[in-house]
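pls read this stuff:
=====
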Amino acid sequence: MSARTMKAKGQAKEVKGNVKQAVGRVTGNDRMKASGRADVSEGKGQAAVGSARERSRRSREDRRKR
């Protein structure tokens, strides 16, 4: 999976988690809220890995240009 794809999927998972949390709050469903928090955390991690891969790729490209 490319860095951009990984970052985008992570951000999408964060959004999904935020929606789950909101639904859980409205319905009073604690499991839904917890599942949403887990998705947000997982998404942040995935997006961070994607960002790190992008920075690494850019760094390698910059070194090659020298």
User: Anything to note?
Assistant: The chain is about 90% helix and 0% strand.
